């Protein structure tokens, strides 16, 4: 059974810091991995999609890496800003759950000014 | 282009009643996924519909059901509501299972409160 774990559960940093969020999954037979952002009480915004054949993807200040063989992904946020404060969710897509995304519980990030 | 849209935004029901939640996918997407996000429990997979049929369901009782219409929009029905059903219900859409490598997009959710 595919399980997704995110560490840490919560993170507080001052503005300007670079930070890394971690995601691990138990079954390496995935199609892809997505990172999402969720503001309180809102829906999910897709940040980055990494295919199983890719090693990393970049979008602005965000960089996500994928090591499928070890079942790990990291989301790197450069020069953090207060507007980055949100919950970040990692999800994998595989044949388990019929290609539905399987989510970790998220990392709640707080960036103080 | 419109994203995934869900209605209503908020819904308040009494225990024992039925709730109906609606989702319209992105144009061209045939798959619709439903998730429950209860406080402190993370996103739990509920149901997957594609081309009008239920393809898979998560570990939820049968009173959670739904359907997908010919235009690929979907309804989630929750019967015999319990207090524990209070949660944010999220809908996502993507291309069908022949294209599993594609991105999934989410709506803004329906907040269901059972009193």
Task: Record the SSE blueprint.
The complex is a heterodimer of chains A (113) and B (115).
Chain A: E1 4-7, E2 10-14, E3 19-25, E4 30-38, E5 44-51, E6 56-59, E7 62-67, E8 72-77, E9 86-94, E10 101-103, E11 107-112
Parallel strand pairs in A: 2-11
Antiparallel strand pairs in A: 1-3, 3-8, 4-5, 4-9, 6-7, 7-8, 9-10, 9-11
Chain B: E1 5-7, E2 10-13, E3 19-24, E4 31-38, E5 42-50, E6 53-57, E7 64-68, E8 74-78, E9 87-94, E10 105-106, E11 110-114
Parallel strand pairs in B: 2-11
Antiparallel strand pairs in B: 1-3, 3-8, 4-5, 4-9, 5-6, 7-8, 9-10, 9-11
Written overview of the protein:
- The complex is a heterodimer of chains A (113) and B (115).
- Chain A has 113 residues and is mainly beta.
- Chain A has strands spanning 4-7, 10-14, 19-25, 30-38, 44-51, 56-59, 62-67, 72-77, 86-94, 101-103, 107-112.
- In chain A, strands 2, 4, 5, 9, 10 and 11 form a six-stranded mixed β-sheet that branches.
- Chain B is mainly β.
- Chain B contains no helices and eleven strands.
- Chain B has strands at residues 5-7, 10-13, 19-24, 31-38, 42-50, 53-57, 64-68, 74-78, 87-94, 105-106, 110-114.
- The mean pLDDT of chain B is 95.
- The interface between A and B is medium-sized, with 27 and 26 residues.
Overview in brief:
The complex is a heterodimer of chains A (113) and B (115). Chain A is 0% helix and 59% strand.
Q: What's the end-to-end separation of chain A, in Å? A: 41 Å
Main sheet characteristics of chain B: 7 strands, mixed
Distance between the termini of chain B: 37 Å
Number of distinct helices of chain B:
0
Strand pairing plus helix content of chain A: what structural class? mainly beta
Q: What's the helix-strand series of chain A?
A: EEEEEEEEEEE
Low-pLDDT ranges of chain A? none
Based on the model shown, name its key terms:
heterodimer, A: 113 residues, mainly beta, 5-stranded antiparallel sheet, 11 strands, B: 115 residues, 4-stranded antiparallel sheet, globular
């Amino acid at each position: 059974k595919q399980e997704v774990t995110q560490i840490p559960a919560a993170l507080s940093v001052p503005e300007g810091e670079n930070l890394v969020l971690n995601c691990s999954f138990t079954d390496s037979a995935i199609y892809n991995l997505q990172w999402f952002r969720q503001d309180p009480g809102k829906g999910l915004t897709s940040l980055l999609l990494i295919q199983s054949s890719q090693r990393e993807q970049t979008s602005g200040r965000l960089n996500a890496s994928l090591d499928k063989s070890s079942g790990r992904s990291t989301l790197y946020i450069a020069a953090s800003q207060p507007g980055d404060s949100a919950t970040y969710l990692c999800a994998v897509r595989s044949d388990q759950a019929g290609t539905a995304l399987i989510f970790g519980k998220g990392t709640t990030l707080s960036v103080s000014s | 282009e419109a994203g995934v849209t869900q209605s209503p935004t908020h819904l308040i029901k009494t225990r024992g009643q039925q709730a109906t939640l609606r989702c319209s996918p992105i144009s061209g997407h045939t798959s619709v996924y439903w998730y429950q996000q209860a406080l402190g429990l993370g996103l739990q997979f509920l149901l997957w519909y594609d081309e009008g049929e239920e393809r898979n369901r998560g570990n939820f009782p049968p009173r959670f059901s739904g359907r997908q219409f010919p235009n690929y929009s979907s309804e989630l029905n929750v019967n015999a509501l319990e207090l524990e059903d209070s949660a944010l219900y999220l809908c996502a859409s993507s291309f069908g299972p022949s294209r599993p490598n594609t991105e999934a997009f989410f709506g803004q959710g329906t907040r269901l409160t059972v009193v």
